[in-house]
User: Fold these one by one.
Assistant:
Number 1:
Amino acid sequence: MIYRETGTFITSYIEDRKLFPIPFDKWAMALFMLFMVFVIPFIASDYWLAAHLIPILAYGTAALGLNLLTGMTGQLSLGTAGFMCFGAFFTFNIMLRSPEWMNLPLALMLAGTVTGVIGIIFGLPSIRIKGFYLLVSTLAAQYFALWFFRSYPYFLNYATATVTLPDHHFDLFGIGETFDVDMASFEAKYLLSLGIVTALALFAKNLMRSATGRNFMAVRDMDIAASVIGIPVIRTKMLAFFVSCFYCGVGGALFCYAYLQVLGIRTFEMNRSFEILFMVIIGGLGSIAGSFYGTILVYEFPILFSWAGDYIFKGAFDTAVVDNVAKIMYGILIIALLIREPGGLAALWATAKQKLRTWPFPH
Amino acid sequence: MKTKIWITGIAMATAMAVTAPPVMAEGEVYIPMPVYRVGPYATGGTGYFGGIIDYYTLMNMTEGGVGGMKIIWNECETNYNDQKGVECYHRQKEFQGKPALFFDPLSVGISTSLVAQGRKDKIAIIAVNHGRTEGQRGDVFPYYFMPGINTYDEHSIITAYIGQLEGGMENLAGKKITLLFHGSTYGREAVEFTHMLCEKHNCSSEAIEVPHPGNEQTSQWLKIRRSKPDYVVLRGWGVMNPVAMQTGVRMGFPISNLIGNIWSNDDGDVKPAGSSANGYQAITTHPTGRVASVIDEIVEKLYDQGMGDLEDKSRIGSNYWNLGVMAGVIHLEAVRVAQARFGPDVNSAQVRWGFENLNLDTARLTELGANGLVPEIKTNCMDHVGGHQAKFMRWVYAETKWEVASDWIDGDVELSQAIIDAKAENAVANEGITPRDCNDPAQRDDFEV
Amino acid sequence: MDFDWVFFIEIFVGGLMSGIMYSLVAIGFVLIYKSSGIFNFAQGTMLLFAALTFVKLTEGGVSFWVALPVSMGTMVVFGILVERFMMRPLANQSLLSLFMATVGLAILIEGFSQYMWDSAIHGLQLANFLDLALLDPVNMTIFVVDYVEWLDILISKFDIFATIVAGTMILILAVFFQKTRTGMSLRAVSDDHLAAMAVGIPLSRVWALVWAVTGIIALIAGLLWAERVSVSFTLVEAVLKALPVILIGGLTSIPGAIVGGLIIGVGEKMGEIYLGDLIGVQGIETWFSYFIALVFLLFRPSGLFGLKIIERV
Amino acid sequence: MAAGNPILQIDNITLAFGGVTALNGISFDVAEGEICAVIGPNGAGKSSMLNVISGVYVPQTGRVVFREQDCTRKRPRQIAQLGMARTFQNIALFQGMTVLENILTGRCMKIRSTWIEQGLNIGRARREEVENRRAVEEVIEFLHLQGIRKTPVGKLPYGLQKRVELARALVAEPIMLLQDEPMTGMNLEEKKDMSCFALEINREFGTTIVLIEHDMSVVMDISDHVVVLDYGAKIGDGTPDEIKNNRDVIDAYLGVTH
């Protein structure tokens, strides 16, 4: 009986608003973060960092961004990869074309802001167009982004196909030289991504439990009623586009900088948008933690499958068979999840937690 | 619930421990196989990796592997997807305790994504017949190899062939050549060079983009119909190729004047176009069909015994499969070159040196049974491409096969060197690369760059 | 330089013809949306699956007149399965969930059809099965200049064939909706699910029927697309173009799907050629159709033929 | 409650959808501090009237003046900012949120902190959350909603949902409150509660109330002023007693043809 809330009484409104009202949750989270920061970089191999943790953090950021827009504010978007593309290219160009003092976190924030503004532009039609009709605007963003960066090679610094992102972009205030650490190592990239993602997730969480978050959800649930009770609907939608695209932009930049280490257009094709949409659906629309659950599942699912193909069946099946079966299972998983629990993994987890709270005496 | 998670966790950990790889036997070398057998580009993947696997298997059977070391490999499905490819790379860097000797994903996206990483890990990234053209400069990109031809060779050879068709390069003057390219950085890469070539040979050129994926080309071919070029050079990829042939023919363009590039020359590109493709010509580094004795040997010792990697036997001798066999020959030759210097148990950095010192001349190719399939390839520190020559094939619809249409034609290496150098300089400036000095024998021969 | 009117007409005609191809896909979308309010994202993969089934059958030596009904039967079974295992359990959920489910369905079909068949590019030549002058691969084009001297434009015979097929299909659908009992119950369901159920229309049977009919439409559209551009996985993405088409048309209207298709077809060709020349960059087609749709939607937020929704509170 | 100056003036409003005229030249005044009931048979245009007042529909002709400002073409939000709050006929709560969150949205106009402050959870944003929460708790207590703060609104019974909606309107501290059929579908007990709330709100906060209601006994009991609509036209306007004796009104309700 480690998991309880019995005996914890709420005595003030501030306490009631805490992120982790249950002490166990708080300690578990703290422990988890300590583990992620101080243990993981030392025990995880390059493979785990480069091929699992870093991509999950990068994808998670973009998924969180989409969730803010689609899950929280109810504006369906298929342009996620397009916005990621903007973010990644802007970051690269800021780093490339600025003086010495520019550093990656600052460039990420700047690029995110510009991407957010672009998001507002493509979000403008949402004032008049609603529901599925809005898909067309985000699709336009998706294809426009690809076309734009393909057609104007200036943004790729006139390179062929891809640019390898140089290691010196990672150095922060000369830390690397001063302390003789490799700032471009996977450990450093992991910690940088983890820091950024944690900060962004915390920001999103705060935003969601404040007035802005309630405005987002009000607009999602019923925008006429929202406007009648005095919520600035248009401003709220635009803000949602801005914040969402900011996150997607940063996610895209992390995807290239921390994960792939190269910048190219192909990275951001339409499929990526779908992939991130699945992450959000499976994780749970409207849940911040859910964005990460979904990311982990969607990212790891095919890998787990091919891993199983390798080790359990010792390569008895063709990779094609394994991959196709994975796809079929994946489709069934999405449909089954929607039938059983439209709230996604986050809702499943919440139900489980609820049961756990009262365990072993459910009544 | 919590308990469940713990149990699952423990179970998984146990499973991992139980299935943990046994230590590999001595006398084996490991080569990763980042295949793609599903998705839109699966034809390429199954053919190419099928060819490689068949050649490796043959070598294991007949020669006990390479230099006395048995070749082992494992597959990882990339879907031709950059992100999955990178995951595969990290996963396959090591297998059963043996490090990978090199990594050949047959994908521009994956290979270019790994150029820097490969250098860090001292693992050579191989991109047969494609990739970042500046990668030719081995002093700047020591761990990146593109054996065969590069984009610029490809288009200078095509121009030379058009010259042959017109009865001499001087007859190119006043002709009009249109480049119909896939709307990607891959496609765009040839635009500038096509204009340069036409400038040199006094022809006029224009470039028309087909947006990805290329299954709607009405407006492009309407443009072509208006501008009436003498030749259209097709720089396509996947479904864009058959659609270009069909749409072109439907718009009344003579198919014999449509010349395909190196990624527009597969059976899978022409067969869907049906009779429209009859007489279509395309460049190739590795003629299709059973053109070399090594292929006959594979058929005899593998396929006739019910082995072999291709499910569909009719694809033996097809373009991608032959390319795979060609790649297999190059791979193992590099390993052998390295073994000759460093002994049989080579590491990846030593194999890199092997790739840099290939010398596949006709004599050696004949010895390997690959003459007629593989072009002559001689690499060095400054040239990681090495081949720079290709042939042409013509599709015969009635017999559903390609016929060889030309002899080996050399690329215009001088014209392309300037662009390649400029791009390499750009990479040096922006990617934080310190090039080595290829004229310094010490630096040149140091395998661990 | 003088404006080349003949070229303009040629682009226009070419645009109309590719527009028809988009419309063919869009009709399937509209049918499902009309009857169940579902935005069926799997339409593209259904098209691919249907065409692939047919092509693989004929490649395996099955004759056209066997392969066609077999593929149709497959699509009908598919429709019934979708209704039973997806629609029915999801019946009372939000439209967004249903949309997501169709996305899941799309992945499932994609995996399944690669598992069953393969993922290579396949060609299809209907002329091998149907002895029609319009499908003759040798004389595929009509040059108007042969008849009208100054009018050097080209029309593809195959496009005429596609137009005829599309027209016939719409006619059959119209008759089906207006005259038959099943068709009428379909319309009733699309107007009001609950009311339709109240008067005794079996909802699940109607939905199964709609999915089956949509499957057959997907097959026909798939065959035409296959003949025109071959069958491959990129069809799925090309079919995304049907999205602006139905949005312009207004999601619920079949004539809307046709008109939308023509607008997008002509619009994107014009954009590619004239706007592309103007700004000196090519490849505008990829996003231009979505911009056209946006412009239309800004003026008519529920499409040209869509029902104008009065928002009630 | 004594009637004061007119706080809301409806002047010759006409509203049509396509060819259907929902409201036809309606004019009436609502005095400050009174409870005004709008009654009429189904389809009389009552809800449309409320939608025009709160800015959801824009009428073709006529003027709506609220607190001496022309609100005819103002957006709903601008009208809300002038001090108008409302409830809806078909409950318009935010279904994805809890009771507490729903009621908190009613405080949206009191928020001064920016979204960045809120995201960082610093200074003003933190203080405002607590202030708003305090205001909400007062209303929760007033309407007896204590036990269901964290319940998703979708899981509540109909009557309670209506009450949550009222709470959401009240926390905005409105000068005028519009209620669209607050008691429909309720049992007698709940109706009593609801009418008590209306009277208390009116008395304690001096809020002017305009409500639409079918139950005549309730209307006659609590309202100071009754407006009767029928087929989009006004057929009666006066005190409850005057209305009770109005010939047209009786005919309309009994369905007598002239």
Number 2:
Amino acid sequence: MKTIKTAINNIDLRRFRFWLQLFFFALLMYGGYFAIDLGSRLPTFACAFNEAGRGGICYLFPLQHQLGVPSSRLFSWAGLAVLQGLLIFSLWFFALNKAWCGYACPLGTIQDWITALRNRLGIRYSRYSQGQFRQLSRIKYLLLALMILIPLGVGAALLPHEMGTPFCDICPARMVLPMFTGDFSQLTIDFSSKTTMIMTTLGLLITGLFFTGAFFKKRFFCFFCPMSALHYLLSKPALLKLKKDGNKCTSCGDCYRVCDMEIREIADEVNETNIMQDDCIMCLKCVAHCPEPDALKATFAGIPIFSSTEQGFIKRMHKGQKHEQQ
Amino acid sequence: MNYYAGIDIGSTAIKAALIDDEGKIVGTHIAPTGSSFHKNALDTFMNLLNQHGIERQAVKFITATGYGRKLFKEADDSISEITANAIGAYEAGKAFGGVRTIINIGGQDSKAIQIDVQGNVSNFAMNDKCAAGTGRFLDVAARNLEIDLEELGDYHFAGRNAPLTINSTCAVFAESEIIGLLAKGHGKQEIVSGIHYSIARRTVRLAKRVGIEDRVYFDGGPALNKGLVAAMQDELGRELVIPEHPQTTTAFGAAILARSLFLAESKEEA
Amino acid sequence: MNSSEADTYYLSRQAREAEATLEQLQDDFPDNPQAMQYFYDLFHRVYGQGEIIKHSGKLVGTTCIHAPEELIYAFGATPVRLCNGSYHYDQIGADFMPAKSCSLVKATLGSLQAKAAVPNTQSLDLIVNPTTCDQKTKASAMMSAMGYKVEDLELPPAKESEEARLYWQRSVRRLATRLRELTGNKLTRKKLQHAMARTSRAQTAFRTLHQLRKSAPTILLGKDAFLVTNAYFFDDIERWTAAVEQLNNELLQRQQDGFQAAQKRAPRILFTGSPPIFPNLKLPILIETSGGVVVADETCSANRMLYDMTAVDEWRLNDMVDSLADRYLKPCTCPIFTRNDDRQRRLLQLATDFKVDGVVYQAFSGCQVYEMEYRSIADALAERGLPMLYVETDYSPDDMGQLSTRIEAFLESIKTRKRQAL
Amino acid sequence: MKRLCTFAPWLLAGLVWHGSLQANSLWWSESMPHTESSSTQHAHGGPVEIRRGIYHKNLWLRTGDSLAKGSYLDEASVDTSNAKIFLLDVKGEIKPLVAGKPHGAFGVNFAMPDEGFYNLYLISEQFSESTRMINIAKAEVLKHSCREGHDHVQALMSPRQHDELPLEIIRLRAPAENFHSATHFGDNVQFQLLHHGQPLAGASVTLYTAQGWRNTMETDANGKVSFMMIRDYYPPWSEFKRRHRQDYVVQAVHNVPADEHAATSAYQQTRYETTLNGSYYPSTRDYRSYGYGLLLGTFALSFTAVAVYVYRRRGQQRFKEVRFDEDN
């Protein structure tokens, strides 16, 4: 048992994560062609607009539809469907916590590929300053609130029907993901009504911004994603947890340095054991880059599955130096 | 009948103590350290034996302590004077109902030791860098005032008005300050009590660093000086436990340790 | 005496002091590991005979652990740590330093002042002086007054905030520019990566040594460990790493054989506070001759200098230089920073890892930052039930008497407590 | 406003003048006689009335020589006494219906309990000089509600025909058609002309749109004919409605010499005329513009890229930031 444990703790996380992300990407983007259907309550961006290939549907799409029904019906017994949807979403979510973002989300995977491309081109990545970080990380809650209120407004006939799925209109995944199954129809401005025109324009502007952002800033969009906000509200009871033993931490800041989402608390927080933050995508790069044995670990239902080890750290950092032997 | 000896080779005086099998004190002997302390230490020990007519072989175990402990070849074992003082005070203190804090003012240093209920040293602080607040300070003052050490006590109580505040923190400056006060026509009594209070204040500050617990044991040569004891009690605000031979507590502690080490060794052999 | 004889004279007094300490290290303790012979000879050659330190490219002296040596290596220069531990240079330094000031800084300035300094660094091309404690910061003006080129590496007074971190990263990058002007070489990704690899190999060797010293009963005395890390100041990094790896193998062998470097119930001491620098290993030697054993330390001449490693996300120049900056600032437990929570946590963790019985806290007289932290460290350790001995000393050997009394009393109190606990 | 106009070539091909709508042509229509908004709701099969959960469909009979001006019937204008109206429902049973006057015009209202296609037929017979004229008006209506789910759709998709009918047009399904798909401008719609259930080759079939465009094609060997739906909805941009419904009627005329049937009648030939109505919507290409979409997307991308580049370059000067160029 011990050897398996050390073998896991010393794996090359970068390669493991690349293949796992590729697997989830294929599952969620092309699962449909193999008649895979994981249902419509997935806590990740399995985009519904990728009709043919999708292996399941991102929960935000049906959520907005359900909230968009006329208020009389929504607040009647029929409204239970929303709670039922939320329940299934939570069950899916409790399994992997925010690892859905770090490993499963196709949009996240694409952003990681863009980052890898930037790195190969030798272009420096940007970081937010601390002030920017605090303001920007509030946007996702604003988007989540809008995503819930607008459909309610549509249901109460305050807003035009075309705004039924407001977030899906502006979400870059709607434009980017169908492209991977050859469907470029989303890259259009819909002039059929003023609302759709504005929403699709916003969508395309954000998609343009998405590509540049993802190029310069690691995991650019995950910062503003309402799904991550929704995740965080449910993240307490999740099974997969990120634990830190503050006593073992020498606050060397390695975890903060490699964190794609630039979360400071991971290095500074030494009292809490559960250090899950709202921006965290559980990519576990921090655990891989922590030299202190068992200072950081990911536990599934209490059982540590991946914890930081000194040999693992040294192996990974050596791997980074191909020229070391010269 | 077995006997056990403890020799405390201090900076100014060599003290030897002898105890019997039950740990009762048989006798003590004090002699000035002088220059060749190795010979003097041996002589003090032999004098002590002769006084009580005990052969050298009867003394089963000798423990040396104090500055010269490592160089006294006769000794079977050596122990630091802090631990020895603690053991000695703990034993002697039992008669007074147990002690927890020990203040020792030696010839060239002053120590404050805190012991726990079993008598182990839990914390200690030493001032051995500066002669102020040590026996040396009293010797210098007595010489300047041309008074014998033993009379210092009486002068302390004879003083009519309030003791002067000798604020010098250094024994060398204190000398010039005393001469200055004499020139101003202050009485010797006020100066002596002033000196006692200055030493008392310094020593209590040292003790505070260690933490003062009930029944404070006060030993070392200057403990014989009643004036100083009064000043200390005034500063501390509590009674002090003074043994009748304050100078030999450390040597007594070393002797007790010698006995327990010997008994432990003999038990191991048996 | 004209200057050359004076130099040899100084050399000889300095050499005698070093030789005395070396003899103490070797002869007062039975069965030292064979692998330590490399280090004894190294110190004998460098300190005793004043052998010149070989270096490739420019010689860059650093007065603190905060100067990133990987950066200096990457520019083709060789770093050498100038902190000096000899009482002899302490006396020379005392001429132009206040009476109650840190012996280390006095000794460093003294060695820089003496032309034939030991370790013989000949002509230093540049001194990188991180602005850590007050006395080292003020010392930089004195060094430039002596004619040395000095680069002040500005260190933030607090390290928790993001501004401090960015400020420090800019300082390190400015150092890189200065090094580029000095050496004329261009910083490339390959060179920096190569330098970081060498340093991380050295750190890996140190960490293995660190893990090995956790074994109880202990297999290596603290004085040897300090000598090993002190050798890192000036020795060639690859030779040093090889020697430490050899020592590790021998210690591993010792561990398997169940070898005991000290008696069974010797109190295991954690050494912290002002750094013991050869030849001022007076306190560790005293502890170990009085029956204790220094199993772990938290000082900037050993653990704090080599323990924390650098993690890099993208192997690109900017990211690597910033990672280096982070590694030298964030984990540092130096008392010059405003808060010392990291240091308390580090000490408590070392105490648990190494099953430590007592802590010896050395503070050079005149070093206010360490003296001021004494109270908070004492409370933190008392909470854990760990006895701590606070020793205020300097490089002069004449307080050995008082020190030995304190050390012995402290060790005896631990021994009786341990016997009680059995 | 660049509109993709794909039908220009077709228009220029010239019109083949065959049969055309006469005054007595009959066809079914879903458009309301007068456009007050009643309780109809939009469903997948077009406007329906939902009473106690059961969908009810209204269809009105119209006549005239052009779709747009086709007039609604009231009792007197056309002799519908011998008109037979019946409904071929999803299960294939035939249920005769009684005409009524829903919303004040001659039409029929029937319930559609089951999911699937309902065929409504009206057969009326007339005589004039020497020909017997049989007019058949057919309407194919879909009933679907998403609540019923979508697993049964494939089974009910295929068009049904009624063999006794002398002449019938059925609309053939598009390859991946389901209950949610609709005909759009520019789509190819295929029909099949059946004579007593057998495909009729060589007959001419004409498609009329509400704006008056029409096109006539010959049926091929197995009676199939396909039309490209013309785009004839050009509202000013702001009034464009994505769900604007356009009606069309497909008509076929077939003359048969008299002797073929009852010997006693005093006519030489029988003229069968059948119509099938339907509707179509604007295609997505009409209101979706790739041009603007890609323009905006690339503008946003390049603008932010340049902004970041300038920020990084300017960022260097402001702080005297030391940056290393990565190319070595």
